[in-house]
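User: Run a structure prediction on this.
Assistant: Running it now.
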Amino acid sequence: MKPAGSEVKTAGSVESRLVNILVIGGTGPTGPHIVNGLVDRGHDVVILHTGNHEVDTIPDHLEHIHTDPFDEEAFTASIEGRNFDVVFAMYGRLRSIAKVLVGRTPRLFSIGGFPVYRGWGEPEQLFPVGMPFPTRETHALASDGIDGAKTQKIAESEELVFSLHPDATHFRYPYIYGPNQVLPREWSLVKRALDGRRELVVADGGLSMMTSAYVRNATHTVLLAIDHIDRSAGQAYNVGDDRQFSVAQLAEIVADELNHQWELVSVPWAQAEPAVPMLHAHGPTHRLLSTEKARAELGYEDLVDPIEGLRETIRWQVDNLPSDPTVVGRLQDPFDYAAEDALVAAARRFEADTAAIEYAERPGWSFGYYGPRDNPGGQRGSFRA
């Protein structure tokens, strides 16, 4: 039996114009793109949000319901007597929203987060240490005794969504970059480049990777699930760009966009405190999502090349963030350049001390690919991350 609401078609069909959709949120980084994508497909869209942040890119003719989606009583009262063909829950307390919407919509599309997976918050609890990469949708979710309280609550909320709305579609968002991101990790790099910093402290060579998604690419995944509403029923999807970058690569992209040059100074994670805000994590282990399911079932591929998305993000930050005093506090990056200079000096001393160590025989690359050490092509070179 087709799930209720399966009459939704792609843009331009007669049926699609009859679909009444409530978007809870809709004014954050991805929200306007989703709202406009739904409007472009001919749907009737109503936006529910606090009203504290209006977005001029959303069409003026849309109905706005202003209430607090974190307040269950206020949210319930705001939609009293109304039902919707589809609801997008992008903001608010998801577990409360899921309860209130029982019987009010046949199809719930909800936005959750990457931290739902076991090991995201406490990677040392896994063996071997760290999440599997890439992490697929079948990986175990956070649970009591294994992960922290916050990740457990995210998992519990997602499980509640599917228990109350078996045909729901749930999206596990990673870090989203682009204009209007309230926690812009790239700013740790952009501001240092604007301030003329020539040496950048990175943890363990800056090789750590964490899945991210450009706003328009994340939106594309969500809208594809509407376009394939039968196929996406009852499914959870990881969201992420097809191409991901390490911290060192992000730094290279920032420098290129801003015509800047710097040297990356590698420091062991335990001492690399200035690099911590760039990772949005308390450890250097990889956090990489598999998006194979979205590609196979929904036909996902990047709308925007991630490098171009990052360049747009960098330009937006240069134009909008230097005068914003709150962003530094949210990032918890003090930009303490005196401390960073002292750390760089200590790293240089360590580098000099270790360079002076004498080996009876220098370790080589092995014979597997490079050949013996007396082969010029197999010589062990120098590298500074």
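Confidence is low (pLDDT under 50) at residues 1-17, 381-385.
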